[in-house]
Write a structure and sequence with these properties.
It is a single chain. By secondary structure, the protein is an alpha+beta fold. It contains three helices and ten strands. The protein has one domain: Sandwich (Immunoglobulin-like). The strands form two sheets. The chain has an eight-stranded antiparallel beta sheet with strand order 5-4-7-10-1-2-3-6, with no helix packed on it. The chain has a two-stranded antiparallel ribbon with strand order 8-9. The longest helix is centred in the N-terminal third of the chain and has 23 residues. The chain is globular, with a radius of gyration of 21 Å.
Length: 212
């Protein structure tokens, strides 16, 4: 009898453990959206679908796969998470999702993850403040669980041609920093509209938007 009780207890314990693991790793069905090119090579607004993105919202974070075509061969592109949270009307979660040097076929696939608690990049709104009236020094919000139900953007920025980087160190910077890239590609923000910035701005060329 004692052996039977022990077996039953073990089975119940295993069931409870399995249930807790399932809850911790639970995820919703995949959301799919077009990746849309916002501007052409001359900076003119456009709305051309150039790929697909898939987003999965988990209890502990988010993950996405973005397949994009029509990119400039040899170009350096970075992929970004941007969550303009309704619960953080001034601040947003902005974080690097990955980078690619595009091959001759003009295609790139990025697999991105972000976990609850991940920090945003530093100083983002210090540069945008003069244009968008955000307070200088406004802190970006870390990724919290409340953002899981907000609008989530997957954005793609172009930094220029990889072979134009001065060296491997500069190329690595292009692949990791929103603000750096090839001269003439990333606009200089030292113009009066962007007072007190003095840094280049590498344009967001493509985006996929996932509504709540």
């Amino acid at each position: 009898m004692r052996k039977i009780v022990t077996i039953i207890a073990a089975v119940l314990a295993l069931a409870m453990l399995t249930a807790s693991v399932a809850v911790a790793g639970s995820e919703r069905g995949a959301e799919k959206q077009d990746v849309v090119q916002d501007f052409d090579g001359n900076g003119n607004p456009t709305a051309v679908t150039v790929g697909k993105a898939q987003l999965i919202r988990r209890a502990d974070g988010i993950k996405a796969t973005a397949d994009v075509s029509g990119l400039t061969p040899g170009g350096v592109y970075t992929f970004w998470w941007v969550i303009p949270s309704a619960t953080h009307p001034v601040d947003s979660f902005v974080a690097l999702g990955g980078s690619k040097i595009v091959g001759q076929n003009g295609k790139a696939t990025a697999r991105m993850t972000a976990n609850v608690g991940d920090p945003s990049i530093e100083g983002f709104f210090d540069h945008l403040a003069p244009l968008n009236a955000f307070p200088i020094g406004s802190a970006l919000a870390d990724f919290d669980a409340g953002m899981l139900d907000d609008t989530i953007r997957v954005e793609v920025a172009y930094h220029g041609q990889a072979d134009q980087a001065a060296d491997a160190e500069e190329l690595a910077l292009w692949k990791s920093d929103f603000w750096t890239g090839q001269t003439g590609v990333c606009a200089d923000l030292s113009v009066p509209t962007f007072a007190n910035t003095g840094q280049p701005f590498c344009p967001v060329t493509h985006a996929a938007v996932f509504a709540p």
